[in-house]
Amino acid sequence: VLNMGGTGNADEMVCWFTAELNFMDPRSAVTIVHGVTEKEDPVRFQELLAVQPGFRAQNVLALEVSLPGTRYTNAARAEIFYAALRERALALPGVEAAGLVNHRPLSGTRWESHYSVEGDDPTPERLEGLTTVRIATPGYFDAMGIPLLVGRSIVESDRADSPLVVVVDETLAKRHWRGDTAVGKRLRRGKANENSPWMTVVGVVQSVKDESLSEDPAAHIYQPFSQTWQRTMDLAVRTTGEPVGLEAALRRQVAELDPQLAVERVEMMGKRLADSLSPRKAINGLLVGFASVAL
Fold this sequence. Notes:
Helices cover 35% and strands 23% of the residues. It is built from nine helices and eleven strands. The chain has helices at residues 10-22, 26-36, 42-49, 75-90, 124-127, 140-144, 170-177, 246-257, 269-294, and strands at residues 60-66, 95-101, 112-117, 129-136, 148-151, 165-169, 186-189, 199-205, 220-224, 232-239, 263-268. The protein has a six-stranded mixed β-barrel with strand order 3-4-9-6-8-7. The chain has a four-stranded antiparallel sheet with strand order 2-10-1-11. The two termini are 22 Å apart.
């Protein structure tokens, strides 16, 4: 069995795969191709190659802004800046949604935390677990195209002085509340013996990939920025068409708000998704080529 998941980059995977096939009889390569692509069944072939990243990447630009602790010393200052940046992004021509998150999908970054669920079966494997923590503002799910499955998203009324809420993904919801609704349930971050505050689940969103398209989706929770903040955030902006000139416009907005800030890690999420798919596409091309020789 050939594992196409891999952990290396596209060139490394293709070189390894080419070397493996060079030692095979072409007829054996055909067997592999049929096992992976089912040439006579193109529908199944496409299903095998299909990858669900959990978000709609087309027409989304993402960039990172990091606020220095020397000037943004508390949550209030950071919130004022990011709220203003989001408002300015929404006002740009062609922008239909904008929001912020501490780590965008496929960023290769996970911030994990222990958590426990109220009323869960108190056994070692169920009492507490690990989840990926995302801190998000209103508009983030719409901007990144992450479908809301049940309940509501993070909204403007989720303030620091309002009841603590959380949005979970379907992976976590199925882990604990399969056959039941997650909305209205409570969980808290930290280990079970820590007295962390409870958060009420208000919505469930589709699971997304953090590191690569080949990984199994990890459980995620999304907390409102107003209730737990960070200085470094990713701004995601969705446009109605190709975001021509959007990067320059967003850089200007950041500079007008704070000329000392740098804009980093700018990327089109569609290209990021395509880059993640490239190893599979390259290997598939090699498979088809070897099969053609044999046939």
